[in-house]
Amino acid sequence: MADAKVIPFDDDRSRGSAVQRPARRRGAGSRRKGEPTAVHEVQPLPARTIPQDDVPVTREEPAAGSPAETAAGAAAVEKPRDDGWERRIAGGLSFLRRRLTGDYEVDDFGYDQELTEQVLMSMVRPLYEKYFRVEVKGIENIPSEGGALIVANHSGTLPLDGLMMQVAVHDNHPDNRHLRLLAADLVFMLPVVNELARKAGHTLACAEDAERLLQRGELVGVMPEGFKGIGKPFSERYKLQRFGRGGFVSTALRQGTPIIPCSIVGAEEIYPMIGNAKTLARLLGFPYFPITPTFPWLGPLGAVPLPTKWTIQFGEPIRTDGYPPEAAEDPMLMFNLTDQVREQIQHTLYKLLVQRRSVFF
Questions:
Q1: Where are the domains of the chain?
Q2: What is the pLDDT of residue 4?
Q3: Cβ contacts of residue 345 below 8 Å, gap of 6+?
Q4: In the predicted model, what is the mean pLDDT of residues 277-287?
Q5: What angle do CA 53, 59, 61 make, to 5 degrees?
Q6: Which pTM does this prediction carry?
Q7: What was the pLDDT predicted at 86?
Q8: 25-39, 234-248, 336-350: which range is least confident on average?
Q9: What is the dihedral of CA 26, 31, 35, 39, to 10 degrees?
Q10: 3-class SS at 359?
């Protein structure tokens, strides 16, 4: 083979390429005798920058605050939420199965605790939380166990205050106690209302039913003003009417259970009663037929209550277990205790009205 002639590198890339081939075939570092070493010294190749796409990817833990961590955190938050929905759906299907098969309990008063907690209170709770925005005070005055008689003022043209008080006790008491209300005869004469009232735990306002519930250790609610309180004109708002004959005091004395006064502010303004169509009320068999600024002038829309701000305060208990059993037959003691409960409720109403900023806020 002929000896390759060394030609210095110049700008002619095609010529330089042809001349370098024999040198590469001889191998790096080889030289012919007599050739200058500097001419054939192999220069080191510059370090090749590896493109970003060629760099192998290594999985690492995402840094704090990185998008990957944010996405992972969001996924972790979403997972329990999905599980919560699954549990709700499973619970709802299980509830329907028990209702269809009759596998649920109802006491001798007709009270259905499961239906009340999962359906009836769920229907009333948005009105309680979002519409009337009920604020509850003094819930610690309600005992954790055992019977107690809660006595409250009554107002509002329609008995929504009783329902709000029932939700207030259940949702705010640490033990989620249920309030069994004593209702008037009219409630149990109405076709649909009768069944719903029984399912929700309400019973007839009589001493026998109240004593049976208190003996079982239940919370019993009573509104002694009755229709005189709920149907009074707007001009007499927050002025307590007569508390009947004090039968609730006699019941509490017989059972030795505490009496808890309860004051409700906000219910008086939901249907401002400016008139009473007594003739129409007698024809319909109602104790009164209310006339408000919106009813009956606006038809069904007039039945929508005004969104007032409510406050429900439970006062300190009045103990009755220190009296002898025959005290329930003492008319003077019954009168004094009845007047004491009434005065405590009235005083609290005035105090709450002074503290209230507005009817609606």
A1: 131-270+305-355
A2: 43
A3: 151, 152, 153, 240, 261, 262, 263, 315
A4: 93
A5: 135
A6: 0.75
A7: 83
A8: 25-39
A9: 80
A10: coil
Going by C-alpha positions, the residue among 153, 168, 210 that lies closest to residue 344 is: 153
User: How far is the first Cα of the chain from the last one, in angstroms, to the nearest whole number?
Assistant: 108
Rounded to whole angstroms, what are the CA distances from 159 to 226, 243, 258?
Answer: 10, 17, 24
Please state the rounded mean pLDDT for residues 271-287. Answer: 94
Per the CB < 8 A criterion, the answer to whether 324 and 267 are in contact is no
pLDDT digits (tens, 9 = 90+) for 56-74: 444 444 444 555 455 445 4
Q: Which of 270, 85, 256, 260 is nearest to 173 (CA)?
A: 260
Rounded to the nearest 5 percent, the helix, strand and coil shares of the chain are: 50, 10, 40
Alpha-carbon torsion (144, 147, 153, 158), positive or negative: positive
Say what the alpha-carbon torsion angle 165, 169, 171, 177 is, to the nearest 10 degrees: -140
Distance CA 327, CA 310 (A): 37
Give CATH for domain 131-270+305-355: 3.40.1130.10
The amino acid present at 230, given as its one-letter code, is I
Q: Which two tokens stand for residue 151?
A: 């006595």
**Among all chains, which residue has been given the structure tokens 């409630």?**
187
Q: Beta strands of 281-342 (E only): which ranges?
A: 290-291, 311-314
What pLDDT is recorded for position 82? 53
* pLDDT for the residue 12: 43
How far, in whole angstroms, is CA 316 from its chain's centroid? 26
β-sheet with 259-265: strand ranges across: 135-137, 311-314, 259-265, 148-152, 219-222, 179-183, 203-204
Instruction: Give the separation between CA 117 and CA 95, rounded to whole angstroms.
Output: 12
| pLDDT tens profile 342-357 | 999 999 999 999 999 9
Q: Which of 150, 154, 226, 156 is nearest to 186 (CA)?
A: 226
